[in-house]
């Protein structure tokens, strides 16, 4: 007696579901090659999105204008101030390292984008999430999981104000 | 072994080689995708890296579809 058969003919459920479970899970070569082709398109699309975002970020950074982020008298030596630049979605930190020495970094850790904090005594920026440590001088990674440095901005002082400048074309070269 | 069977065996080898090549291209595309993501996150990385990754990935995608077309044609014949 065959699977699903009956002396008087096929059973009722076999008439309603005529496809065996083996046939149901069988993938043809056409389906498999289609899957490979679509996977290739997905990788291409992902690369395209990454390239687009990179280009857009650079374009937006070039278009941003200089912004006054603090008065010189607002910060003591060793102090810091948080601000947002170039958009409200980009948290940044301004540090006063000396009487006329200011540096500004993007506050997002280059590891997993947790906000970094300034440790004035150690002269370092610390990420509390995974204990990543960055130099407060140039933002380079010193310890912990981050491999890339913090994004650093060009800072200038004029008219008693600290200005953050958009990156120059040379910085993008 | 008849000439027809021999031809079928040879076609099987060629088709396996084509599929291996397709999977190699897919792995290369995956690597290019990670390179583009890394370059996107890093401000210092030049824009040419992502453009090159995009162009090579496009060539890889075209090659994959050409190989798939060849694969399906050879299977039918």
Overall geometry of chain A: elongated
For the largest beta-sheet of chain A, the strand count, sense and barrel status come to: 6 strands, antiparallel
Shape of chain B: rod-shaped
Question: What is the first-to-last residue Cα distance of chain A?
Answer: 78 Å
Topology order of chain A in helix (H) and strand (E) letters:
HHHEEEEEEEEEEH
- What is the β-strand count of chain B? 0
Q: Could you state the order of secondary-structure elements of chain B as H and E?
A: HH
Strand ordering within the main sheet of chain A: 1-10-9-4-3-2
> Which percent bin holds the helix content of chain B?
over 70%
Q: Which two protein chains have the largest interface (Cβ within 8 Å of the partner's Cβ), and how many residues from each?
A: A-B, 26 and 33 residues
Which structural category do the helix and sheet elements of chain B fall into?
mainly alpha
Number of strand elements of chain A:
10
- Which value, in Å, is the CA radius of gyration of chain A? 29 Å
Present the secondary structure layout.
The complex is a heterodimer of chains A (173) and B (77).
Chain A: H1 12-16, H2 21-24, H3 29-63, E1 67-71, E2 80-84, E3 91-98, E4 101-106, E5 117-119, E6 124-127, E7 132-135, E8 141-143, E9 152-158, E10 161-165, H4 169-172
Antiparallel strand pairs in A: 1-10, 2-3, 3-4, 4-9, 5-6, 6-7, 7-8, 9-10
Chain B: H1 3-41, H2 47-76
């Amino acid at each position: 007696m065959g699977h699903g058969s009956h002396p008087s003919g096929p059973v009722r459920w076999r008439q309603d579901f005529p496809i065996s479970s083996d046939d149901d899970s069988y993938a043809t070569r056409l389906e498999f090659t289609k899957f490979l082709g679509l996977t290739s398109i997905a990788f291409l699309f992902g690369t395209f999105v990454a390239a687009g975002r990179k280009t857009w970020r650079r374009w937006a950074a070039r278009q941003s204008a200089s912004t006054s982020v603090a008065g010189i008298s607002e910060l003591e030596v060793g102090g810091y101030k948080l601000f947002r630049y170039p958009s409200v979605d980009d948290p940044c930190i301004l540090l006063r390292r000396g009487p006329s020495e200011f540096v500004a970094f993007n506050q997002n850790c280059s590891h997993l984008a947790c906000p970094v904090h300034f440790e004035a005594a150690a002269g370092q920026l610390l990420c509390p999430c995974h204990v990543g440590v960055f130099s407060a001088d140039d933002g380079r990674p010193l310890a912990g999981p981050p491999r890339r440095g913090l994004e650093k901005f060009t800072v200038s002082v004029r008219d008693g104000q600290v200005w953050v400048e958009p990156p120059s074309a040379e910085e993008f070269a | 072994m008849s000439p027809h069977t021999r031809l079928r065996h040879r076609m099987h080898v060629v088709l396996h080689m084509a599929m291996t090549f397709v999977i190699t291209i897919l792995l290369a595309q995956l690597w290019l995708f990670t390179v583009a993501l890394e370059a996107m996150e890093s401000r210092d990385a030049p824009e040419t890296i992502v453009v090159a990754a995009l162009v090579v990935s496009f060539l890889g995608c075209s090659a994959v579809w050409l190989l798939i077309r060849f694969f399906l044609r050879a299977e039918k014949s």
